[in-house]
Amino acid sequence: MIHFNSVSKKFGSSLALEDISLEIKQGEFVFIVGPSGAGKSTLLRILTRELLPTNGEILVGKVDITKIKDRDVPHFRRKVGIVFQDFKLLDDRTVFENVALTLEVQNKSDEEIQKMVEHTLKLVEIWGQRNLFPRQLSGGEAQRTAIARAVVGKPDIVLADEPTGDLDPKTAWGVIQLLNEINSWGTTILMATHNQEIVNTLKRRVIKLKAGKIVSDTKEGKYD
């Protein structure tokens, strides 16, 4: 599904990622861990083509995304759902409208949008909040909206960058259970996190970064 081959990224003279090589199979749930500044977010941003690596290649399926043309990036991003720590919801749109935006840019019909958004909001258990605006939501509801927006288009991959960072423990676990369910559909999940308890409880693959390098990569790993 995903192959990083000798990927490095520099910002000026600073090396954010150094010689990263890894393979992630379809349907895996992988935690990306490490201290602040280790390169977790940079790795995810490169995978969305928000950033280009300084060196190396990245294959998603059989496509080297470092070589696709700028005009083809939006089409590639349909395969990738993104969940952020700070939600990044549009304040002037309702829950329904925030999630529908993903499908609008894919030129789905109004009938398709209605059906797909309703189905997804019911899955993440916030259909009742569909007409509320982000300012009216709790943190957990906002994050569930963000997850719904990420998965409504049925992407192959979901990238989650510290999705529980601003949530209380109970709400955080609800979000993790939701991501776990999405993973059970066959969706590949990459989640960057500092949360040791979540990582150590779920016992999934753990890739640890330090100063831009992979220092460990273990199945059913721990974060200590």
From TrEMBL:
InterPro entries referenced in this protein's UniProt entry, alphabetically: AAA+_ATPase, ABC_transporter-like_ATP-bd, ABC_transpr_LolD-like, Cell_div_FtsE, P-loop_NTPase
UniProt keyword annotations, A-Z: ATP-binding, Cell cycle, Cell division, Cell membrane, Membrane, Nucleotide-binding
Residue ranges occupied by any ABC transporter domain in the UniProt entry: 2-223
Subunit organization: Homodimer. Forms a membrane-associated complex with FtsX.
Family note: Belongs to the ABC transporter superfamily.
Organism, scientific name: Candidatus Daviesbacteria bacterium RIFCSPHIGHO2_01_FULL_40_11
Compartment annotation: Cell membrane
The protein, known as: Cell division ATP-binding protein FtsE
Range of residues in the leader sequence: none
